[in-house]
Amino acid sequence: MRSTAHSFRTPGGITLGVEHFGDETAPLVLLAGSVTMLAWPDALCEALARGGRHVVRYDLRDAGTSTTIDPDAPRYTLRDLAADAAALARGLDDRPAHLAGIGVSGMVAQLAVLDHPDAFSALTLVGTRSVAPGPVDPDLPDHDAAKMKKRFSLPKPDWSDRASVVKFAGIAAEVFDDDPAEARATAERIFDRTPGANDSVRIANHVGMVFARLDCGPRWRERLPEIAVPTLVVHGRRDPFFPVGNGEALAREIPDARLLVLEKASTAIPVAASDEVAEAMLAL
């Protein structure tokens, strides 16, 4: 399926890199990057488009082709990223959009629906949790300590060397039980989308560490019962970063949310699961 890449400028002057799939007059499904849009498999975007949706995936700030200034010292907040999602939804369609977030962009998506409820008609949350980066609530499972230690003890790649970065992505994926071949293919595409970037920008694109430096307050978990749109929570059974109990908690605390657990998945949506996830999203 042919897609088209564009950019979108928000009323606040932020440029967001976007990619369109399907009929642009169809109902909008907006996929927030984590942190780049390539967190969403092509196969999933295409399946949603075949299901009669206008699918737009986009890069968050300091990622991909979106506005990049200083990933080491972001001057925006989580709420600014939520406002970006609402501005994009309103700018692309005069009807409320189905918003989806994966990993850290799932936090953006929760807050966007809470703070801008008029902009959204449905919500999908994939592999995420209901609290910001940092100390987790005692009733939620935290990162798998052994996996995290192994992952962050890996030798750092030469961020300016494509082969080194791609090899690192595959090894890191193996540690987290994701598909290393899919991770390497995605890393190649991410690298090729950021030509001439410095190490900080490349790290932001491949690892997304910018979220560790964002102001993510105040809390929003206690507001989850305010979410009034149909919600799907998707989580990998093997996810060591945000263990599946985080998805189970989201599904309990968001009224009438549906939980879809992918038994063979970890932190990423496997290409093989794209049709299953798309079918569940379309059912909303």
From TrEMBL:
Keywords, comma-separated and alphabetical: Hydrolase
Q: Where is the AB hydrolase-1 domain?
A: 29-265
Report the Pfam families cross-referenced here.
Abhydrolase_1
Q: Which InterPro entries does the UniProt record give?
A: AB_hydrolase (IPR050471), AB_hydrolase_1 (IPR000073), AB_hydrolase_fold (IPR029058)
Annotated GO molecular function terms are: hydrolase activity
Q: Which Gene3D superfamilies match?
A: alpha/beta hydrolase
Presence of the UniProt keyword Hydrolase in the record = yes
Protein name per its UniProtKB record: Alpha/beta hydrolase
Recorded source organism is: Saccharothrix yanglingensis
